């Protein structure tokens, strides 16, 4: 069975650079890549007063598809097997959880994602993943 490298992808330049780095590692290791997009859970009483759960789910799926499709264009000519997945929740928690559940060899992720201001308020996703992941984590600038 082939090793897997988890690459969280959010559409940012940093996540694309992480994907390119992971591709090089995967080629050398003959590993597979698991692209993961995490959508925030917008289902709350305040939001659901104005938008149905179905509309929120559709938005999450469309957003994830857009990000994943962009990443797949980057890897389309590589000889690396790439799988994709979407999760809903807190990105740092979901990334670490997916890494454990999928028994990945390592996580390769961007040192920053979308939203520098948001990261100052809620903390850095990459920083949190680095501290809670059960496997090696590589940060790419």
**Structural category:** alpha/beta
Mean pLDDT score = 90
Q: Helical residue percent?
A: 40-55%
Order of helices and strands: EHEHHEHEHHE
Largest sheet, if any?
A: 5 strands, parallel
β-strand percent reads 15-25%
Number of distinct beta strands: 5
Cα(first) to Cα(last) distance is 30 Å
Q: Over all CA atoms, what is the radius of gyration?
A: 15 Å
The gross shape turns out to be: globular
Helix segment tally: 6
Low-confidence stretches: none
Adjacency order of strands in the biggest sheet: 3-2-1-4-5
Describe the model.
The structure is a single chain. This protein is of the alpha/beta class and 141 residues long. Helix content is 50%, strand content 21%. The protein contains 6 helices and 5 strands; from the N terminus they run E-H-E-H-H-E-H-E-H-H-E. It has helices spanning 13-29, 45-48, 53-75, 91-101, 116-122, 125-132, and strands spanning 4-8, 32-39, 82-88, 106-110, 137-140. A 5-stranded parallel sheet has the order 3-2-1-4-5, with helices on both faces. Helix 1 links the parallel strand 1 (4-8) and strand 2 (32-39). Helix 4 (91-101) runs parallel beside helix 6. The longest helix is centred in the middle third of the chain and has 23 residues, at 53-75. The model has no long low-confidence stretch (mean pLDDT 90).
